[in-house]
Amino acid sequence: MKDALLATLIEEYSTVEAFASILALESRTLASASPMEDLPSIVEKKTELIGVLARLEAARDTQLAELGYPAGWSGMELAASTDTRVAAQWTLLQKSAERARRANTNNGELIRVRMDYNQRALAALQVNMPRKANFYGPDGRIPAHSGV
Fold first, then answer.
1. Which residues in the chain come in under a pLDDT of 70?
2. What's the confidence (pLDDT) of residue 142?
3. Residue 142: inside a domain, yes or no?
4. How far apart (Å, rounded) are the C-alpha atoms in residues 42 and 21?
5. How far is 124 from 16, CA to CA, in rounded Å?
6. CB-CB contact of 92 with 80 (8 Å)
7. Would 141 be classed as within a structural domain?
8. Which candidate, 58, 34, 53, places its Cα nearest to that of 97?
9. Residue 147 within any structural domain of the chain
10. Alpha-carbon dihedral of residues 68, 96, 100, 80, nearest 10 degrees?
11. Contact 23, 43 (CB under 8 A)
12. 132 class by beta-carbon count within 10 Å (0-12 exposed, 13-18 middle, 19+ buried)
């Protein structure tokens, strides 16, 4: 039964590494001049991998229960304490997940900076100018003068 747990950990590790690769691509895309072309496919792939990770985590929790361990981190710590192969793979998975977490946090910051930049650019474009005759309105028309 620990072989099944080990196989799940290996698959989880591979999936987290794939997720980290997508995060690296997302980071480069967010730093580019026009990221909107590539972001939808990146978000789609991230969503797919998150689903795979959720399925693997559920499988791992089921396997832990079958071995008599609690679910989650505490169960994995107990399982790892009794098998060196599981311990080694669990350590790899934890390190990979931490790298992915840092990359995801970094990408969140890149998104925040880009949003801030866009807000400032929008504010600069929305300069409050007094309406003057013959200026085009928001609808592209010259407003009619009342009282003339």
1. 127-137, 143-148
2. 72
3. no
4. 10
5. 41
6. no
7. no
8. 53
9. no
10. 20
11. no
12. exposed
- Would you say residue 119 lies in a domain? yes
User: pLDDT, tens digit, for every residue of 89-113?
Assistant: 999 999 999 999 999 999 999 999 8
Cα-flanking dihedrals φ and ψ of residue 77, to 5°?
A: -60, -40
With contact defined as beta carbons under 8 Å apart, do 52 and 8 qualify? no
Q: How far apart are CA 34 and CA 16, in angstroms?
A: 27
What is the total residue count of the chain? 148
Give me the helices (H) in 1-148, please: 2-30, 39-66, 72-80, 84-125
Q: pLDDT at position 132, please?
A: 56
112: domain CATH number? 1.20.58.300
Domain count, the chain: 1
Domain encompassing residue 46: 2-124
